Amino acid sequence: MPYTADKPPLPQTPDQLRARIPGWGADLDPADRPSVPREVRGLDTGAHWELPEQQEEHVPRERSVEHTRLTPVFGTSVPLKGLSGAVRRLSYARFSEGRAAHWLLLLAADRVDAVESHLTALVRLHPDDPVTETGIRAELSAGPLSSRRGRVDVRHQVLDPVVVVGPWVVAGVIGYRAVRSVVRRARREA
Amino acid sequence: MRAMVYRGPYKIRVEDKPMPRIEHPNDAIVRVTTAAICGSDLHLYHGLMPDTRVGSTFGHEFVGVVHEVGPSVQNLSVGDRVMVPFNIYCGTCFFCARGLYSNCHNVNPNATAVGGIYGYSHTTGGYDGGQAEYVRVPFADVGPTLVPDWMDEEDAVLCTDALATGYFGAQLADVVEGDVVVVLGAGPVGLFAARSAWLMGAGRVIVVDHLAERLAKAREFAFAETIDFTEHRDVVVELKRTTGGLGADRVIDAVGAEADGNLLQHVTAVTLKLQGGSPVALNWAIDAVRKGGTVSVMGAYGPMFSAVKFGDAMNKGLTLRMNQAPVKRQWPRLFEHIRSGYLTPSDIVTHRIPLEHIAEGYHLFSSKLDGCIKPLVVPSAT
């Protein structure tokens, strides 16, 4: 096709589109759309305050160093705890959101958190169950082969179980070697 | 109460958790009647979003009944049936005062770059979400709205994020009459963005994905042409070919952080977490849009850097537009469109899962098994 000033022809006219597609052109006017203009003053939000009251801070709440204050409202779902909490606290106290270190520390803390939580659950006799918690039983009734046939993402799905099971295997090997080492030392001393 | 609880990457279980409490005078507690699993929940599930803590409850799409209200709540009463936008926002800060509800500065101590979102890690404020029997709803006078009497429960839950985000994405793309619009991703947001582009006068809508059942849904539900990117050696060349060599006027990225289509990008971003997200779809958008065109980004990415082809975006004079959707600004118009039959959100729901079986639901959705496009979670079902 030659590169001219004309736009390539469309397969259907507006009348044909209107007849085929429910509501075609209902929001045709770009100025008459809900988020146009993007910034607008005077919307009724339902708020009846200028500055919201401050939510009580029962335990010290970590916050971004880019904030000048603790926000009036905040989530309380999982307070900082353990080694992962210490890493997260360091990340928030030391690095701004603009620093990769901030996010990498938080991601590292997430992995530490998972290990800590698995161990805690074990001690509390409510251990994690890889079968039920991964939802793998859905495979039984979901057509695992037919659902995946020919899919490009299957290539990386091969790696997913490694990511999930890998830490368990590594922890198992480390545990086995530790126990073996203790046993051997005990035998030598005996 | 029973709630979905994150246990680490790819692992969740349902546990008894303490009932949420009124922690601020304008809080409400809502009993969840229907929730949904969003594609962006999978980023949490896969351990991609920093500061996703073990023990947290996901879920930012939910509707329910008001169970308790704080002392300053004026606009809601116990027993009201409400739909709750995924944004948590105060209504009066610098950003809310300008309609940027998704960018509220008063609700997220953990980050200034993003507002508050239910059940979406501490990076968005550390709030528990709605994949539970009950949930704390801050600023109850601002976010929630009564579900209209005529509105179906499943339509209502889809208005709380997926539909509003898709519709907002089409707006951000600056669609005008006769535009050729390409939507990357035929998940719920992509399907809704494609359908919304028609409302704004698109002349062609082309949806790109690789899953047969989603492409079929794009043809049937969104009246779109479709391209399976695995059938082409280079999907960008195919998009150029079908647009007369120019590229599309508007491209909407409705994929986000876990895009397939480039193994190296996917593995470095999703498996190894070395990028904030796999920018495959974003790079295809930059390449496939015409010079001077608009790229609208609705796909969610993590806060870290990603390997985006920014030079081409500059050289082509592109407009890149993006934001988390300010959901409640979309609702009056969306309600009109649903009532008129122009939008039929619940048509994309494929699975309804009892809360107790939510781990299977996540696996099904994450692995895209059994034709799963949009799973809902029903706490009261058994």
Number of helices of chain A: 7
Broad shape of chain A: extended
Number of strands of chain A: 0
Helix percent band of chain B: 25-40%
Distance between the termini of chain A: 88 Å
Number of strands of chain B: 17
Q: Can you count the helices of chain B?
A: 11
Overall helicity of chain A: 40-55%
SSE arrangement of chain A, N to C: HHHHHHH
CATH class assignment of the largest domain in chain B = Alpha Beta
Q: What does the oligomeric state look like here? A: heterodimer
Strand content of chain B: 15-25%
CATH architecture level-2 label of the largest domain in chain B? Alpha-Beta Complex
Task: Report on the biggest sheet of chain B.
Answer: 7 strands, mixed
CATH topology of the largest domain in chain B: Quinone Oxidoreductase, Chain A, domain 1
Folded structure, characterized:
- The complex is a heterodimer of chains A (190) and B (382).
- Helices cover 46% and strands 0% of the residues of chain A.
- Chain A is extended and about 95 Å long.
- Chain A is built from seven helices and no strands.
- The mean pLDDT of chain A is 92.
- Chain B is of the alpha/beta class and 382 residues long.
- Chain B folds into two domains: 213 residues, Quinone Oxidoreductase, Chain A, domain 1, CATH 3.90.180.10; 149 residues, Rossmann fold.
- In chain B, strands 3, 4, 5, 8, 9, 16 and 17 form a seven-stranded mixed sheet that branches.
- In chain B, α3 packs across α10.
- The two termini of chain B are 15 Å apart.
